[in-house]
Inverse folding.
């Protein structure tokens, strides 16, 4: 598949004036995340991975999204705000993962991670539309869980990874060096160069 | 990553500061009395002309470095953006030549170079006005703040005009009153310098307003130079018989302000994230270090005008 930013690797900025020690430390730690759970139990982990596959399908598993969400839970790194109908971060995820798995077992008789891709996506869609309900949800609206936790945390994890930055030509943290040529169609030498117009198929890229 | 050109910039800035410092020191050291003595009386017009060469040299240094940094930032997107570098360098070169030249006639290379610099500066100002106008929003505050600065090419024109005046002074016939564009040279020069001081002050005012006057010293370049312009204008208009000491000292203060301004801007660059270690960002995005010495150059031109008015009865 042709890349929108051919040859661009944000990590080539690592040892340039663009990044300082604090930035390097943060990104190094992010890249060192191993694709295995440290907080969730085995069943929760399998369910989370299946949800991640449904929300952000990856041709090659470049970003360990589930593990990044798991670390967020391990650190209990909260947003600093929350819809009062949702319990705090860890409790929301634990309850939501168990409820999604229970919904799969009730419908198809198998665990959520064992669903076919289409059955999985149909169930996620029902959750998005608030159609999932039951004792496992304990009053937590499934649509709210989808929007505030599933979509929010999974997308935030994906786009926090340098591999995702390369895809969209993002320069990573502007710390300490930012950008100086701040006008339309101008580019600093340390910015990603976009492929010429028409060279990338918009339907697949 | 094309970082190849960058180490030179730090050197340029260092040179700018050193250059401004030595020029100011030189200007402040020279006593007006020196011109009359030493046996052969040096003609007042040549003395004034050489002072103007010095003022033009300082302004040209400022515009050379400033346009170099800013047009590098603009990637020399338009090929014409190399012009102020070439013209400023030539102005600097002929000014250095003029500073050493005590002869009483216009030089056949210096004169056209200065005239060309004046024209180039005016054309450049037109370019910058056009650039602001074609940006989305046209002549709005946003574009005046962040578009091409109007005052920068005008400084190239000022350096050229001061040089052009100096050549007219040298070319004036002995015994007659030196004139420029039909006006008595001293008053014409005072008017040009005062206008330059006010315009440069307006530019500083606009950009310091953009910077929210976050440092009280940012008010200095919008207060001291306009007062210098007013004092100089008053002196030129009234032609007093006795020397105006306040005008002279206020112009010296203005010269010092331009030099100190570069120092403040060095400090300002260091306040950016990462400080001077992050110079490749902060020199371009921070306050322009080579810009303030333009005030020093204009103040030196003002002192030349003052000297001419006081020494040459019909100027």
């Amino acid at each position: 598949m042709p890349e929108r930013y051919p040859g661009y690797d944000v990590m080539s900025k690592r040892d340039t004036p663009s990044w300082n020690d604090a930035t390097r430390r943060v990104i190094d730690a992010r890249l060192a995340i191993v694709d295995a759970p440290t907080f969730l139990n085995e069943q929760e982990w399998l369910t989370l991975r299946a949800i991640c596959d449904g929300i952000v399908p990856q041709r090659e598993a470049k970003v360990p999204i589930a593990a990044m969400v798991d670390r967020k839970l391990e650190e209990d790194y909260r947003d600093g705000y929350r819809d009062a109908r949702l319990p705090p971060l860890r409790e929301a995820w634990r309850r939501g993962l168990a409820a999604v798995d229970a919904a799969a077992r009730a419908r198809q008789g198998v665990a959520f991670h064992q669903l076919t891709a289409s059955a999985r996506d149909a169930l996620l869609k029902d959750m998005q539309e608030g159609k999932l309900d039951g004792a496992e949800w304990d009053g937590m609206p499934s649509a709210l869980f989808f929007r505030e936790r599933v979509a929010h945390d999974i997308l935030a994890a994906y786009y926090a990874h340098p591999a995702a930055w390369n895809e969209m030509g993002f320069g990573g943290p502007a710390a300490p060096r930012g950008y100086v040529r701040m006008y339309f169609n101008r580019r600093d030498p340390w910015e990603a160069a976009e492929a010429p117009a028409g060279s990338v198929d918009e339907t697949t890229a | 990553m094309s970082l190849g050109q960058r180490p030179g910039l730090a050197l340029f800035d260092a040179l700018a500061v050193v250059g401004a410092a030595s020029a100011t020191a030189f200007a402040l050291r020279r006593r007006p009395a020196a011109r009359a003595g030493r046996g052969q009386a040096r003609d007042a017009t040549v003395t004034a002309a050489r002072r103007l060469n010095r003022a033009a040299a300082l302004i040209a240094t400022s515009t050379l470095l400033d346009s170099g940094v800013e047009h590098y930032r603009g990637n020399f997107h338009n090929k014409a953006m190399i012009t102020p570098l070439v013209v400023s360098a030539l102005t600097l070169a002929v000014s250095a030549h003029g500073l050493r030249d005590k002869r009483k006639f216009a030089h056949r290379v210096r004169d056209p170079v200065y005239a060309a610099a004046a024209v180039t500066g005016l054309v450049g100002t037109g370019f910058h006005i056009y650039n602001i106008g074609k940006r989305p929003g046209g002549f709005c505050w946003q574009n005046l703040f962040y578009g091409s600065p109007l005052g920068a090419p005008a400084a190239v024109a000022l350096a050229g005009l001061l040089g052009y005046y100096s050549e007219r002074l040298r070319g004036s016939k002995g015994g007659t009153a030196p004139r420029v564009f039909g006006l008595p040279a001293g008053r014409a020069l005072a008017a040009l310098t005062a206008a330059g001081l006010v315009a440069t002050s307006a530019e500083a005012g606009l950009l310091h307003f953009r910077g929210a006057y976050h440092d009280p010293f940012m008010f200095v370049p919008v207060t001291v130079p306009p007062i210098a312009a007013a004092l100089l204008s008053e002196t030129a208009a009234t032609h007093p018989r006795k020397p105006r000491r306040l005008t002279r000292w206020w112009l010296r203060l203005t010269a010092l302000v331009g030099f100190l301004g570069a120092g403040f801007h060095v400090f300002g660059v260091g306040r950016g994230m990462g400080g001077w270690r992050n110079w490749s960002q902060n020199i371009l995005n921070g306050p322009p270090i080579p810009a303030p010495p333009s005030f020093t150059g204009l103040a030196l031109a003002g002192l030349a005008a003052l000297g001419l008015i006081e020494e040459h009865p019909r100027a």
